[in-house]
Structures are given as C-alpha cells and as structure tokens.
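Progress against Task 2.4 (sequence-to-structure conversion) is shown through the following example record, which the project officer requested during the mid-term review.
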Amino acid sequence: MATPRLATFPLRAADGGPLYVDVLSGARPGEVRPTVVICHGFKGFKDWGFFPKVADRLALAGYTAVTFNFSGSGVGPDSEVVDEPERWFRQTLSDDLADLATVVDHLAASPPPWIGLLGHSRGGATAVLQAARDPRVAALVTWSAVSTFHRYPPADVERWRREGRMDVVNARTGQVLPIGTDLLDDLQTHGNGVLDVLAAAARVGVPWLIAHGADDESVPCAEAERLVGASASERTRLLKIGGAGHTFGVRHPWAGTTPEFDSLLQATVGFLAATLP
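Structure tokens generated for the chain above:
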C-alpha cells in the first residue's frame, strides 16, 4: 500500500475568499479511489484534534480523504485560531452548504463519481443537507450531528439583534469571537426550507451511519434519535457510543486516542467499506 500523500487545491468559497482544502491519498498514479469529504463543526477547523487522524486512517483504508475549512470558520490554511475574524463574523449556514457543494463539485468532475460525506456536529447537519439533494453522494456518516439549526433561545436572539453581534468565547484559546446578524438573517429566511435538517433527513436515501456519544454534553443524544426518526430509509443505522461525549474524549491539540474514539473510527471505516463503492 502506498504511503498517503497530502496535497491541496485552491477553490473559491461562498464568501468570495479562498477555500482551504487538503487532500490525503495513498493512490498510485492512475489509480481511482472513492473519496470521503470530512466536514468540521462550529468552532472547528480541518486540522482540529481528530480530523487529521481520521483523514490518515481513511487514506490507509483505501480512500481519498478530503478536509477543508468552511469559509465562516475564519481559520486560515495553516492556523489553529480564528485569524480571519471578518469571515467568522459574516458566517452563514447557507455559505457552509455552498462551500461543501463547491468541494463536491470539484471532486466529482474527475473519476471516481463515488463521494462519501463524514460530518461532525454542525458539519454533520450540513452533510445531511448535501446528501439529501446530491445524487453523487453515495454514503453518509454523521458524528454528534445536530438535528436543527434553531438552537438559540429567544432572549439571546433579541439581544443579538439589538447589539448586532453575539460574542462566542473559544474556551481553548480565550478568543472572544463576535458573530454578526448575517447568520440570524439566513436562518430566518431558510431555516424552515433549505436549512431544515429533519426535512432533509427524510430525503436521504443512501446508507447513513448516525453515530453519537451517549453522554454528549453539547448535542444531546436525543438529537440522533430525531434524525433516525426522520429518516425514511431502511439503510439508516444508529450507533450510540457508551460513555462518550461530543468529541468522543478527543481534545485539541491531539494528545492521543480514546477507546470511544477507536470504536467510532473502526465502525466508520467498516461502514464505508460496506457501502461506498
């Protein structure tokens, strides 16, 4: 088996700026491999914690693994902090979906046409939206995915509107990161349409692994149950990881794996092997 190699390619993001994309593959010249696109969550980025390990494991398993930073993450290509704060401030969920579509469009323009999506938390919900509308997606895996983007109490929304911003504190870096009202406007306009996660879940027909930590402190496991309940497909499978939280015990920077994460990764690779052509 060839040693995985890392490459990048430049794309234009939904906000008009650069889209930072990494491609890891052990394919030999001329070899065609199925591709898995990995989507990070809110306050995440392509190099957070377990994502490089996931990409490496998938590449060793015979896939081309693609990671990228959503434009609204505000994280540059080689950074671990928000160093493009204006992009973070202007983030929207629709831009997330458009960024993912841009990556999939680029990959699907060349063989093979088999695309798998793997998304964590908010990125999991974005992957659900894409899988529901894109026939090129052949398999879906979501980890700790949210079942709705409507997550803000009315009092918080009122204050957000009044002040024109909501401050988010990154506990890891101590950064105070204000988000503007573009996200609220987008959710108000599209939250019950294009951005309706449960409605999209009902349209997902490809094999779908819904994995969730039984002790998730950020996104309750009940949200995984809602996704399963919304799915109309017999090919949707729920996997609860006992004792696991939102990131399955993994932290950033990477300090080693956990039994919960090992179990999750093994199940994910096995699922993709059985379902992605």
